[in-house]
Every structure is written in C-alpha cells, then in structure tokens.
C-alpha cells in the first residue's frame, strides 16, 4: 500500500500589528479544511506574544525556522508597522531562493518588497497604500487596480476580500477548479474572481498627504474632460517637462499621464455609479473620448465592461440592481 502524499506545508508569518482578518484568511482557506491537502503553521520572528492590530495578542509558538521548511509562505498585512527586520527579510529571501512560494495579503507586500522579492515583478496591495509601495520600491511595477497578481512563485493581493480570492486561486492552481469551488462553498465565498478585476473601492486620485504639486493635480481634476498633456501640465506648474515627470512620480508613484488615466477612470466610475447617462456621455465627461475607448480601457484596467460595472453598483431607490445595458 502506497503512503499518502505529504501535505503541502503553508507557513503564515504573523508580524507585530498583524491585521486580524488578513491573518485569519490563510488559516480558514488552508488550515480549517478537514482532511485537506494542506498543513498550516503560524510563525513569527520571535516566538511568544504577537500584537494584533485592535485586538488581543496572538501567542505564537514557532519562529522563523518554520519559514525554512514551508512550501508556501503567506505574509498577512500589518497596520502602521515599520519595515521588517533584516532577520525577517533574510529568512523570506532564503526561502524564496529554495523554491518556496511567497504570498502576501494587503500590506504584506511591503515585507516581500523589502526582501527584494518583488523587484522586476508586478505586484498589488490595498489601494490606499499602492502609491507608497511604488514610491518606496521603484523596481516594483505596482498594479493598484488589481485584486491580486500571480507572478508564478510570487503572488500578492489587495485587501481582505482579495486575500480570500487569492487563496482560492492558489487552491485552484494546486488542486483544480472542483477543489477550489468546493472550498469556496464551505467558506460561503465567491468561487472565482479573476485577479485582473478591479478593487471596487473609492480610491482618490489626489493622494494624501502629498506635496507641492497638489494645486496642479486639483486643477487637472477640474478639467478631466479637456485635452491635457504633460507639456500643458508642465507649463501650468512652471516647470520643465523632465522636472514635472520626476516630481509627479515622487509624489504619486505614477507618471503624469498614468495618473490622469487613473483619475479619468475614477471619474467614469463615479458617473456610472450615480447616473443613468449613456456610455458615450460618460466617455466624454471623464475625458476618455469615445464609448469604444471607454469600453476598451474599462476592460483592460478594471476587468469588466462599463455596463457590467454599472450593473454591479448602480441601484434604483428601491434597492434593486440596475441591469439595463445602455450602450
């Protein structure tokens, strides 16, 4: 009789001020699965009490030695924590070199970035911290709209719900769609949301706090339906084109035209959520040009066409969903 296969070992790395919901996601998806294919271990830098943001401390028995033997390492988000220690960075970097799969939820991406694991890769995090990730780690291509990003052995996700999506995506990768769908039903979760789907959360185009270009960005936000170029923004700011691009990236983590595109997509989303105006009207008012261009950009950056976005978020006063396709 052949021996049963070895469980896939998942180590959940809980660092100080860990977010309770982020921490609970991998335990629920991987660890509460009766007779499931995963074995989970909670670990930390120094065994003992680990502060939980807004709650009681965790008592964690295992140290970084658990990271050295894990097949997958999940780093949940933290609240207000500084950069990870050199010991933590060295441990996760060494595990990655040995072939461990690295996963982050929410601001856990900052730990992977500090260890150098995201250099040259795409990654995401909670929308509120995406600009900070881009500023702090310019070698990382930050995808602020995405629910999660799969770069093979390095996977990152946005906030809580996106963390569930990513963990179910991992189950789907490891053991197929049937196993992932069964697990989703047990957790009463959506069976599948693609990583390219947008973080459907209000995300201000004007960061806070920001810098000397605040007034310029406020001026641009009032003129999104007008043709705006880098040269026009530079003239308005009284700067050279090169200086504007550099300062814009320093303050927002994005080049000017990418910031403008993000702002215009946000404006289009607001109009779709709050009105019944046609797609053509939304395209003109948001500065995205034509309905064709709007549909193309929504599909590329948000993962869904504008009518699907509206059907998801627009409600009648009675509370029923709007499903009319106004092309």
Keywords:
327 residues, alpha/beta, Arc Repressor Mutant, subunit A, 10 strands, 44% helix, disordered C terminus
Please provide a written account of the structure.
The protein folds into two domains: 8-187, Class I glutamine amidotransferase (GATase) domain (Rossmann fold), CATH 3.40.50.880; 214-313, Arc Repressor Mutant, subunit A, CATH 1.10.10.60. Helix content is 44%, strand content 13%. It is built from 14 helices and ten strands. The chain has helices at residues 20-31, 65-68, 86-98, 109-114, 130-136, 160-175, 177-187, 214-221, 230-237, 241-252, 256-274, 279-286, 291-302, 306-313, and strands at residues 8-13, 38-43, 48-52, 55-60, 72-75, 101-105, 122-123, 141-142, 148-150, 154-157. Strand 7, helix 5 and strand 8 (141-142) form a beta-alpha-beta unit. The protein is globular, with a radius of gyration of 22 Å.
- Helix fraction, binned, reads 40-55%
CATH architecture of the largest domain: 3-Layer(aba) Sandwich
Mean of the pLDDT scores? 85
The structural domain count equals 2
- Rg: 22 Å
Q: What is the global morphology? A: globular
Q: Please, how many helices?
A: 14
How would a textbook summarize the main sheet? 6 strands, mixed
Helix and strand composition category = alpha/beta
Distance between the termini: 62 Å
- Secondary-structure element order, as H and E? EHEEEHEHEHEHEEEHHHHHHHHH
Low-confidence stretches: 201-210, 315-327
